[in-house]
Amino acid sequence: MQHKAKFILQVFIGTADEKLLKPHSFYQVHRVTGKTVTTHSLERAINGTKVLEIPLEPKNNMRVVIDCVGILKLRNADIELRNGETDIGRKNTRVRLVFRVHIPEPGGQLVSLQVCSLPIECSQRAQEMPTVERQDLDRCSVLGGQQMVLTGLNFTSDSRVVFTEKTQGESFHTAHPETADLKVTWQY
Fold first, then answer.
1. RHD domain location, by residue (predicted)?
2. Where in the chain do CATH 2.60.40.340 domains reside?
3. What's the fold here for domain 7-121?
4. Most buried one in 44, 69, 71, 173, CB count within 10 A?
5. C-alpha angle with apex 10: 7 to 14, nearest 5 degrees?
């Protein structure tokens, strides 16, 4: 069936519940913008649910590239203040992207078509402590001036390296990258 009219594809964040698909209380769709985004979209609130609307046009064979959709986690404290909200947001981290379009039929009725993605896990795993598996130098000064490469697991932009030097008198000198002449570069 070839339609000549333009339709609107609605995208929102739904629950991952197998029994009942409904808008998610703790996550909402977020409109992504930028140089690499090619799809025009508009944000709307429909019955308290944030929805992205994306035009489906006959000139594009009713196809779009979904490069403008993000998932935003709402603050638990804000959601739990809503009257009647009993869902536990800290445990409810699975969502689905829901895609819906309303197609007008002859006679004025609308047929709604809806499909959803597979469940998406939105939680961040508890950060494990960084582990140094290898270093390329056995010793160097805590004052800097040499390059030491540390290789390991679970390094993040928040990870910090503290160098400690044991002196002859059994006292320790500690240097932190923020206060010493040390440069720490992270590679992910």
1. 1-127
2. 7-121
3. Immunoglobulin-like (2.60.40)
4. 69
5. 155
